[in-house]
Specification:
The complex is a heterodimer of chains A (304) and B (557). Chain A is α/β, with parallel strands linked by helices and 304 residues long. In chain A, 34% of the residues lie in helices and 23% in strands. In chain A, a hairpin with an 8-residue loop joins strand 5 and strand 6. In chain A, 59% of the residues are buried. Classes of the chains: A alpha/beta (304), B mainly alpha (557). Chains A and B meet through strand 3, helix 4, strand 4, helix 6 and helix 8 of A and helix 8, helix 9 and helix 19 of B.
């Protein structure tokens, strides 16, 4: 089902609808139940090869043409934070990144940039070891790690509660389309790292998040302004212990989750670990900050 | 024919200088050079002599690379100095470019013997038993020398100047220029021009590759000393090569055996052109004689002689060459004394560390003496390290820095891990692959889980998780060896705890710690384990791993 409306429009309608429901309840009209189809839509693909999974979820959301117009500049943000090999599940699967680049190219994107702000050093080693540089370059993208503060620009967070501003990657702010491509992992300090946590790789000073009143709140604050147009969660192989860097136990899930609601994708992602999204601190705070929908019963899940 | 010789010599100098710079730039991740990047250092006979004599054992790769230069010198004299040495070429270029005018004439060589005395003093520092390998055996073979050769060896000096001064200055200049122009152009016109913005984005991305310039401590002092060496050209051309270079002294001494020599024919009318032209003052007042151990074989004298009186000949008959070094006996004794004094001074200074004779463990009073993985036990390491800085050049995270006070006076300039600058990143073993004297022995990446650098410890009164209840645990995130785990408080807050059996001290935690400026988790060198050898370190790690249990918050379904 293609909704064919913008997210803002959708949120407006959802709010109106919620108000209507509230009014109905006030009117004590029993027998009215909330339809599962009222929330955001996410697509979940399983049991395919990595690139097939990406194609399946993107098709289920209406095709890449719905997000990328001809001549657009696209920024793809994988998790490229650690000097780890792809099979250690600490960084995004290179095949998934490459397939997204190909789809963007096919949709007419003028330029596709694959960028991240890594934690490990050195950049050249990371790009090579994670396999993302070779795969994405072959697919037709520019790949780079944003390692200079001059590449970031100050963004105010008016809704921020723990932090008031962040320095965000300029290429992201200038891009027409921003696609967040996290990998699902357990995380030593935030429990899980999925799409919303992956946004930390677009800011310069991560230390400020840790020093702030609450790391979970700071992550939610950042997500109020850094908004992906599309989230594609790589859960082909997930990291189950010693996250986020590993090496730890990994599990083959052969799953890719995609959606336009960052929180809805993460809410589904949490179930892959047997966790409830509302128990994960930064997801709960993100819900409170109005990032998106956290309740799976209100999210339309298209299994493909 | 002989005028071509001058052209050939200059071409050779340029070739070797470019080669030296090229190999220097190849010493970087992922290190795929068909020629060893430390070729010049390996081929330096003085460094080979120093490492082997002070360690009291042959180092085979060094032997193979340095023997050709030894034979070259035996046959052709100090031709290395005139045709190959990158230091000599740099001095030549600087003297030409800076128009250094000579203050003194080409008179009697007052200082020329100094280099031989310096060489003698340096050989003494290699021989003196400065530390003992083991507690129960004493004697020359069970000891190590405390070589001071690093001070004056031209190849080591040149390489470290390039690493500590040339590289950071070049990178910072680029970085500052690109950052300033980027910021200025975006705020002034790029933002208002979408087309320009798009056109510039590839350049912006390319600039990211030079985004992290390196820096090194001791850079300024190194610059000053190199500048002083060049500036001495004011007094005499190639002052360094004539008077100070111990490598030149060694090669000149070997060259006394050379059968290749200059001959002066009867056509010489004593016009003194060659005397004035000679870069190293090898031709004295009598232009029909020259000093063999001084001549660097540039053969400019042949090229400039208007009479064509000078030629190259072979043979051992007494001719124009004077092979006497004319060393004074008292000065030689003085040089030996100076060598002894240099060692004693280094051992006595600061008293940062001592080898405990009963426990066979190195006691250190510096917390921050963390050596790169694969480093020899401390005393052997310090005597083998020639401070060339090649390991620091190749280190991709800039964590290897020249020691300042960490290891005492004797260890100044040796590599130490400084985690706040960068961590010893796990998938890397480059420092062991480029060390010319094998002071850092080659090691496998898999061995890094047990090659000990130090141990991290959390300063709980500064850690924002322990002291202020913040959600952090970034040290746990970043630890590549899973040595950090979470201590769960009653309210569910997570605080980092280090498993000191597993931690090897790579410094990743200290590097990422958000507590400024020093970090609340610090790596300390406490309990050096290098003397145990690799096997024992490996076994200890395996036992520790067996004991540690895996903890995870979400088990997965």
């Amino acid at each position: 089902m293609n909704w064919g409306i913008s997210r803002r429009e959708f949120l407006r309608r959802a709010a109106l609808f919620g108000a209507a429901v509230g009014t109905c309840e006030l009117s004590a009209l029993s027998g009215f139940s909330v339809d599962a189809a009222t929330g955001p839509t996410i697509a979940v693909a399983t049991k395919r090869d990595s690139s097939g999974l990406v194609r399946a979820v993107v098709d289920a959301l209406g095709g890449m043409g719905k997000f990328v117009d001809k001549g657009d500049v696209v920024l793809v943000k994988p998790n490229l934070g650690w000097a780890r090999k792809p099979d250690q599940a600490a960084t995004t699967n290179p095949e998934i990144v490459a397939e997204i680049v190909r789809l963007c190219r096919a949709a007419g994107a003028r330029e596709v940039k694959v960028m991240d702000h890594a934690v490990d050093r050195p950049d050249s080693l990371l790009l090579r070891m994670t396999g993302i540089e070779d795969a994405a370059k072959a697919a037709g993208a520019r790949v780079g790690l944003a390692s200079s503060p001059a590449m970031y620009e100050r963004v105010e967070l008016p809704k921020g509660r723990a932090i008031k501003s962040v320095d965000v990657l300029r290429d992201l702010l200038r891009a027409d389309v921003f696609i967040n491509v996290p990998i699902a992992k357990v995380h030593g300090s935030t429990g899980l790292t999925l799409g919303i946590k992956n946004l930390l790789g677009t800011v310069w000073d991560r230390g400020a998040f840790h020093r702030s009143r609450s790391l979970d709140q700071a992550i939610a604050d950042c997500a109020t302004e850094v908004k992906p147009h599309l989230v594609i969660l790589d859960a082909v192989r997930i990291l189950l212990s010693n996250g986020p860097k590993g090496p730890g136990r990994t599990a083959m899930k052969s799953t890719v989750v995609a959606g336009t609601d960052p929180l809805a994708v993460d809410a589904y992602g949490a179930t892959l670990f047997g966790a409830k999204a509302s128990d994960v601190g930064h997801l709960k705070r993100s819900y409170e900050a109005g990032i998106g929908e956290i309740d799976l019963s209100r999210i339309r899940v298209k299994h493909v | 024919m002989y005028s071509r010789l001058r052209f050939l010599r200059r071409a050779s100098q340029i070739f070797f200088l470019v080669g030296f710079l090229a190999l220097f730039s190849f010493a970087a991740y992922p290190l795929k050079s068909p020629i060893p990047v430390d070729l010049f250092l390996r081929a330096d006979p003085l460094l080979a002599l120093s490492a082997m004599v002070s360690l009291r054992r042959p180092i085979v790769p060094l032997l193979w690379y340095s023997l050709p230069i030894v034979f070259l010198s035996i046959f052709l004299g100090r031709i290395f100095c005139g045709w190959v040495c990158p230091m000599g070429t740099t001095i030549d270029i600087c003297e030409r470019v800076l128009h250094l005018r000579r203050l003194s004439g080409q008179g009697e060589r007052r200082w020329r013997r100094a280099k031989f005395y310096l060489l003698i003093a340096l050989i003494v520092t290699m021989l003196v038993p400065a530390a003992h390998r083991s507690a129960d055996e004493f004697g020359l073979t069970q000891s190590v020398g405390l070589s001071a050769v690093y001070l004056l060896d031209p190849i080591a000096l040149m390489t470290r100047t390039m690493t500590w001064v040339g590289l950071p200055v070049a990178q910072w200049s680029l970085r500052m220029t690109s950052d300033t122009t980027t910021a200025w152009s975006y705020s002034n016109f790029v933002d208002r021009n979408p087309k320009l913005n798009r056109a510039l984005s590839p350049i912006q991305l390319a600039l990211a590759s030079i985004a992290r310039p390196v820096y090194f401590r001791l850079g300024f002092i190194t610059f000053l000393s190199f500048a002083a060496i060049v500036a001495l050209g004011w007094y005499e051309r190639r002052f360094w090569c004539r008077n100070l270079c111990p490598l030149g002294a060694l090669l000149g001494w070997l060259g006394r055996l050379s059968p290749v020599r200059l001959a002066v024919s009867d056509r010489c009318n004593e016009c003194m052109r060659c005397v004035n032209e000679c870069k190293v003052g090898a031709i004295t007042q009598n232009p029909k004689r020259y000093r063999g151990p001084e001549c660097i074989g540039c053969y400019d004298c042949i090229a400039v002689c208007p009479q064509g009186a000078i030629s190259l000949t072979t043979g051992y008959e007494d001719g124009a060459r004077n092979d006497e070094m004319e060393l004074g006996r008292r000065r030689v004794l003085g040089a030996i004394g100076a060598g002894l004094g240099a060692v004693a001074l280094q051992k006595a200074a600061l008293g940062v560390k001592r080898t405990d004779a009963t426990e066979r463990v190195l006691k250190m009073s510096s917390l921050r003496l963390m050596r790169p993985p694969g480093a020899l036990p401390e005393d052997e390491f310090v005597s083998a390290c020639v401070r060339c800085g090649e390991c620091m050049k190749v280190c991709p995270t800039n964590t290897l820095q020249p020691a300042v006070g960490e290891g005492g006076l004797e260890a100044i300039g040796t590599p130490v891990v400084v985690p706040r600058v960068g961590a010893c990143t796990q998938p890397c073993n480059l420092c062991g692959r480029v060390c010319p004297t094998k002071a850092i022995e080659p090691f496998e990446i898999e061995e890094k889980s047990h090659l000990y650098l130090g141990t991290a410890s959390v300063n709980r009164s500064a850690c924002i998780a322990w002291a202020f209840g913040r959600e952090c645990m970034i040290c746990d995130e970043a630890c590549p060896y899973n040595a950090i785990s979470a201590d769960v408080a009653e309210d569910g807050a997570l605080r980092p705890v280090v498993d000191e059996q597993i931690c090897v001290g790579c410094g990743m935690c200290e590097w990422v710690c958000p507590v400024e400026p020093l970090g609340a988790i610090r790596v300390n060198s406490g309990g050096d384990r290098r003397h145990l050898g690799r096997e024992k370190q490996k076994r200890a790690r395996m036992e520790a791993e067996r004991e540690s249990t895996e903890k995870t918050l979400y088990p997965g379904i």
